[in-house]
Structure prediction request, 156 residues.
Amino acid sequence: MEIKYQGCLLSVKDMEASKQFYQEVLGQKIIMDIGVHVSFEGFSLQQGYAELVGIPEENVLTKAHNFQLYFELEDLDKIYEDLKKKKEIQWVHEIKEYPWGQRDLRIYDPDMHIVEIAESMESVIKRFLSHGMTVEEIAERTMYPVDVLKGFMGLA
Prediction:
């Protein structure tokens, strides 16, 4: 028997607010919408989760800080500018850079699930190359093997 991963499901209180957030703020496209259940590519939203699984409503946690959705893009600065214009956005943190060079930001969705938006590692590598770093220097900084970096760069 093969078990195939199909994505994660987030419990939401207000489906319309959540759909608007994922469509308009994050640019995600709905694959299926049956009212209380909405599927995007890689994740779904479920209203009435407690009733669906048979647990008390008070046992459905909010702002648990033990899970996040992860998205990547090429231009982190652009989405940061767009998000800063939206007064309703609640921030976990604004842009920060990690030791391996990748930059990200984290926000909350309407149900206080953490959403991470990060630049792709390919973007990080391109940025480092534009700053004159060698493949070996990039490998040391990103912890990526040289042969993987060369693949990103079309040199493999």
Remarks:
- The first strand starts at residue 8 and ends at 12.
